[in-house]
UniProtKB/TrEMBL annotation:
Keyword Membrane tagged: no
Protein name: Glucose-1-phosphate adenylyltransferase
This protein's pathway: Glycan biosynthesis; glycogen biosynthesis
Organism: Falsiroseomonas frigidaquae
Stretches assigned to the Nucleotidyl transferase domain: 18-287
Keyword ATP-binding part of the UniProt annotation: yes
Length: 423
């Protein structure tokens, strides 16, 4: 495993706190986030997207963790309570869930990412971490934050910003930075329409991963300064980072320096599964013989809430009615009863009835596909009941009338969409 090390050599992580920003909806996921925040969206069969940032923190040696929630947080909070309650105060470990709440000044919403931390300064001060690692809760990747902490201290930076090289025009959704030969950030643009390229590689741009490291006392000073500015948007990407680029020392940390890879992972893996197409692709990629993201890496496990369910079950073995899954991931509690799944990902408790065919399907927990249904290139929301004989993914015009169909031909199916058809 790349960047492997013992806990004894990770003192900075032990005195740091991870603060995960998990309040956003993720509106580009359309109806998939109608009932849950983007960090709570299911991924990879049994995990939620937020589990990656949290697992990275724990695996890096960080034992003080807080999660700020806001948009439709019930599903997320329930998952955190069930899956992340193993940190123990008696071992000097903490795990705090921090929903937006009524404060002394009457404010009851987080106004931006920086404000989410600012409103909880009193809670953080009680824990007295030496450094703060600010994390986005909606990306899929494996990273050892200890290396980023070490670079922060060694460089004498005011803020260290995690960054990754992406195709230039894909960087319009990110903060984009210019750096000099010493990795100092000399310019920072939040979500530019025409992102600047990397010198020498104009087809790529250096995008912020939404990961920031600060010395805690300095961070509080900046948050209080920003809160006193009536024109601020109270946001790290729009306000805090650009201010420090101009008036302090902001340093870039390249993801490849701290990404964690097993022997099966050829290149650094990081995904913002923020659109239906990207979400479908990231899940279906896991069905490859050698996927870009190794979920079977026991040296860097992705922790999550493990629902108690029976093993997956495959039944019937006659021609045309054979329970089978080919090039697919099938989670616990699934029953493939005389149906077939190909290049698909079935989350917990999915039931495929006889004569069903699923090809390129991302089926979230407890989806029930009735007899004779055919699904091609779909994302099906949790608990949806696909009617008998229904065909989705073969007729673009008909699909667009009934479901959310993307430009790449992926169909998002929710129960509300099906109820409209039946009505």
């Amino acid at each position: 495993m790349t960047n492997s090390r013992s806990q004894a050599s990770a003192p900075l992580a032990r005195t740091a706190m991870a603060f995960v920003l998990a309040g956003g909806r993720g509106s580009r996921l359309m109806e998939l986030t109608d009932r849950r925040a983007k960090p709570a969206v299911f991924f990879g069969g049994k995990s939620r997207i937020i589990d990656f940032a949290l697992s990275n923190a724990i695996n890096s040696g960080i034992r003080r963790v807080a999660v700020a929630t806001q948009y439709k947080a019930h599903s997320l909070i329930r998952h955190l309570q069930r899956g992340w309650n193993f940190l123990r105060p008696e071992r000097n470990e903490t795990f705090d869930i921090l929903p937006a709440s009524q404060r002394g000044d009457g404010q009851n919403w987080y106004l931006g990412t920086a404000d989410a931390v600012y409103q909880n300064i009193d809670i953080i001060e009680d824990l007295a971490p030496r450094h703060m690692v600010i994390l986005a809760g909606d990306h899929v990747y494996k990273q050892d934050y200890e290396h980023m902490l070490q670079q922060h201290v060694e460089s004498g930076a005011d803020v260290t910003v995690g960054c990754i090289a992406v195709p230039r025009m894909e960087a319009t959704a990110f903060g984009v930075m210019h750096v000099d030969t010493n990795a100092n950030i000399v310019a920072f643009l939040e979500k530019p329409k025409d992102p600047p390229g990397i010198p020498g590689r104009e087809d790529l741009a250096l995008a912020s991963m939404g990961i920031y490291v600060f010395e805690t006392k300095f961070l509080f000073e900046q948050l209080r300064r920003d809160a006193a500015d009536p024109d601020s948007q109270r946001d790290f990407g729009h306000n805090i980072i650009p201010y420090l680029v101009k008036h302090g020392k902001a340093v870039a940390h390249r993801f490849e320096r701290s990404c964690v890879r097993s022997s099966q992972e050829a290149v650094p893996y990081w995904r913002d599964a923020g659109t239906i197409d990207a979400y479908w692709e990231a899940n279906i990629d896991l069905t490859d013989v050698v996927p870009g993201l190794d979920l079977f890496d026991r040296d860097w496990p992705i922790w999550t809430y493990a629902e108690v369910v029976p093993p997956a079950k495959f039944v019937h073995d006659t021609e045309g009615r054979r329970g089978e899954a080919i090039a697919s991931l099938v989670s616990g509690g699934c029953i493939v009863s005389g149906g077939s799944a190909r290049r698909s990902l079935l989350c917990t408790g999915v039931h495929l009835h006889s004569y069903t065919k699923v090809d390129g399907g991302v089926l979230l927990p407890y989806v029930d596909v009735a007899r004779g249904a055919r699904l091609t290139n779909v994302v099906v929301d949790r608990g949806v009941r696909i009617p008998e004989g229904m065909v989705i993914g073969e007729d673009p015009i008909e699909d667009a009338k009934r479901f959310r169909r993307t430009e790449k031909g992926i169909c998002l199916v929710t129960q509300a969409m099906l109820d409209k058809i039946e009505a």
